[in-house]
Structures are given as C-alpha cells and as structure tokens.
Specification:
It holds the Pfam family zf-MYND. By secondary structure, the chain is of the alpha+beta class. The chain has 2 domains: 8-145, Nucleotidyltransferase, domain 5 (2-Layer Sandwich), CATH 3.30.420; 160-247 and 302-404, no CATH class. Helices cover 32% and strands 24% of the residues. The protein is built from 11 helices and 17 strands. Strands 15-14-13-10-9-8-17-16 form an 8-stranded mixed sheet. A 5-stranded mixed sheet has the order 5-4-1-6-7, with helices on one face. The radius of gyration is 28 Å and the shape is elongated. The N and C termini lie far apart (71 Å). The chain binds zinc ion (2 copies). Residues 264, 266-267, 270, 285, 289 line the site of one zinc ion.
Length: 406
Amino acid sequence: MEIKTNDKESLTAVQKLPKYDSEVLQYVSRLLRVWVQDEQQKTIRPCYHFLVRLYPKGQVIRYEICRNPDRKPTASQVFDFLCRTLLDPPNGEDAHRPGIISFTDQDLETQLANMLNTLGIETQVLQPAEGLEDLVKAVSESLIKRDLATRTDASERPGMLSKPGVDLSMIQAFFTAAYRLREKGPWSEFSENQVYGIRIDDIFRFVVVLGSSDNVFGVAVCSSLSRFRQKYCQAMGSQYSGSSSSNISCAFCGAEQLLVTYRCTQCKVAYYCNEKCQRKDWSVHKQECHNNALWNQKLERPFLQRKEMTLIYCSETAVPFDDLDLQAKYSWPLYPCEENFPVAFVVVANDGETSLDRPNKEELQWLTKLCEVLVESCGKTPSSLNEKALMEQNKWIFVETLSNHK
Ligand SMILES: [Zn+2]
Ligand SMILES: [Zn+2]
C-alpha cells in the first residue's frame, strides 16, 4: 500500500508522532552496482532508496528497492517511502518525526518541501553523506552473495574520469561526438577490410571503421598497419606471413612509416613521419640524440607504448558502472538503440604483455576529433595516399584494402 500525499489518515498519523527536533535525516536514491532481471526478464540496474540519519549519530535507517527499479523514483514514491519508514521504523526504534529531512537533489527537495512542512518537518539540500558510496557497494555485494544479482567483468573497470588530466568537459565532448557518429551511421560506407589513415593534432594513425560485417559498431585505431594486416589474417583464419615489428615507426607519434621518412641527421637513429613530427619530438629527443643508452630506454612519449585504441558501442552491461553513472548524472546523449553506449579502451603493450586501459587525455581528445572527422567525411571520397595528403591535418586518406595484402 502506497501512502499518497492525499492519504489523510496516514498523514495525520505522521503528524501526531513525537518530534525529535535535533534529528537530521537524509534521503538519497542510487542505482546499485549490479545487474538484475526485472519481471519482464529485462536486465536492469536496480534503483534503491536510502534513508540515513546524519545527526545525532550517523546511521543507515532503511534501504529498499524502488517501486519501479529501473528508473529514479518519483516524488510521491519518495514521500511514501519516508512516511512508511517514520510510521514503522526498523530496529525496534520508537516511531517519531525528525526535525529535518535533507535531500541531495534540489528538484526533489522543491517538490517535497511543502508536504513535509505540513507534517512539521523542515527540508534542506545537502551533499550526500560520507560513506554513501561504500553503502551502495556493500548492498550491491550482498545481493551478489545471495545470488540475487550479477556483475559483468566490464562493470567494475575504472571509468573514464580515472585517468589523470581527463575532465568532464572532455568526456562530454567525446560522448557528443560518438553520438553524432552513431547517428550518422557510416557503417556501410566504410568496409571493415579497408584501412584509412588520418593525421589529427600531428598524430598519424591507421583507422578501420567497424560495422559493415556484423553487429559490432565502432572504430579501431592503431599506429601499426602491419598489426591490422595481422588481425585481418587471424579473423580470416589464414596465416600472417608479413613481419610485424621490423617496420620503422616515427619516434614522435609512433606511426608506421608509409611513404616518406625523415631521419635525424645527427644520430641517424630516430625516424619521423615528417619535419613536423621531428620538430615536436626535439624536446625529448635532444636528451637521447647523443646518448645511445637513453635511446634504448625509449623516453616517455605520449603515444608510443600504447598500441591500439577502440571505440565500440556496447549495451549497458558491458560498460563500467562509473561511466554509466556519469552519463546518467549529466544526461549526455545516447543514440536510441540497444547497443548505443560508446566505450573507449586502449590496449597497452609492455614487454610483450598487453593490458586494457582507459584513454588518457591526449588519446581521448584525439578519438573525439576522429569521430568528428569521420562524420564530416561521410559521403566524401577519401584522398589517395600521397605525400601531400599524409601531411595534412584532418584529411581522411585511403591506405589499403586488407584482403589485397599478400
Ligand atoms: Zn610522426
Ligand atoms: Zn637524433
């Protein structure tokens, strides 16, 4: 039975409760960090109500699943939860009214202030209580332990904000660009066995647009063309005969060399795409130019160690919770279809071992611009591979068809 805002009997009962003037409670609703099946067998993240006593003693009073667990509760559902808890407090406490109920959400406070005031309870907006996120995690864990919920491998991976230097505005720009790409849907225009090249912010990368052959939509980005050839052979079940590591890469941006190669005239060891890359690398390279020991250590360069980057559109269960929460908090656009959530990952190769990481600041900004350029490039014929095109920024260059490569 729901206690409605016009349920006079229950409201009078709440009004008659003794009042603990100094007591401050806080109401919060949160999506748990687990997946459950709803009544229609749809996989959802359940939303829970939490009522916490902030003062005089920090304490969780009650938490329970929301009536419509796949969305934020309405103000009247929150009101019902509050009144039920006040009338029938758990843990054998005496029923009473608090002096103040605080909310973390301004809209909710505005909607409920009048009703609670008539019950003699003040309202305010406060930051979520300390320890709330731990409580959400603990409740999630307990559901998993009791086999009532599940979690995917991807769910607890770090979110995009976990990388130093990455901020909200960058993530928002990425979401917006990825949304426009999903909406534009150039999946049939680009074939998965065609490699394109593009230079953005003086970083040259090879790109394959995924989506022409199956249901995986996105883009794969790599500094090495032979890596793409190798992957294509693997996917086709054939043996890759070419070499994978002997190609010369640019010391600045890491791109495998295609046509022209500039070399440092002093040490003759460092190769570059062009003069621009060489100039940009000089602040790092000057330390190693006359010092072979340093050269062998491979000084830190923004893109060198990180071999591949992908943007894939996933269903929510394949997305880290932290990213889902950010998107929900800021209402960034998502294309209305099943697999619509843009997820960016970087494969990091370190001494033969590979691991997954989230894009750093430079990578995220690069990927965002790539989506924008790809949207702009739709319907236009890419430039053919030539020295001038290689040097130009934001120019989509056709490099090769993988199936033709022998
Ligand atoms: Zn370069
Ligand atoms: Zn040099």
